[in-house]
Amino acid sequence: MLDERRVKLMTQLAFYEQTQGKQDFKISEYYRKDYAGMHTICSVIWVTVGYVCALALVFLAGMESLMAKMSNGLILTLGVAVIIGYIVLVIVYAVITSHVYNLKHKKARQRVKKYNHNLTRLLKMYEKENK
């Protein structure tokens, strides 16, 4: 005889496996610090690529006026501004990325724990029926 609670629980488990479960299982394979660190490093790399591209576009667009006003002080000031801007941008992106992916891992891990708890409940229902 079919138990309605067991069928509902099995449906919940199957739905989770087909939707969020696929991604949550991949995420929960990593330790939280490893998962966040990996994504933080990728974020820093892409921010660097984007910053270099943006800097190249700005440099190319303003090259004529820069050449007209070129002096050692101006070049030094621009160099320091570019480096400080890059450092600030990378730090901000790293902090935000780390926070976002730590939170994402934490939530995925909680859903996987709930899934495992429901699997244990289902197993107990089967054991209780077989006794």
Gist?
The chain is an all-alpha fold and about 130 residues long. It has helices at about 5-20, 20-30, 30-60, 65-70, 70-130.
Description:
- The protein is mostly helical.
- The chain has helices at residues 4-18, 20-28, 32-61, 63-68, 72-130.
How would you describe this structure in keywords?
5 helices, mainly alpha, 131 residues
What's the arrangement of secondary structure elements?
Blueprint: H1 4-18, H2 20-28, H3 32-61, H4 63-68, H5 72-130
Instruction: Tell me the overall shape.
Output: rod-shaped
Q: Beta-sheet strand percentage?
A: under 5%
Enumerate how many helices there are, as a single number. 5
Tell me the total number of β-strands. Answer: 0
The sequence of SSEs as H and E is HHHHH
Global mean pLDDT = 92
Sketch the major β-sheet: none
Report the radius of gyration as a whole number of Å. Answer: 26 Å
Cα(first) to Cα(last) distance is: 14 Å
Low-pLDDT stretches? none
Helical amount: over 70%
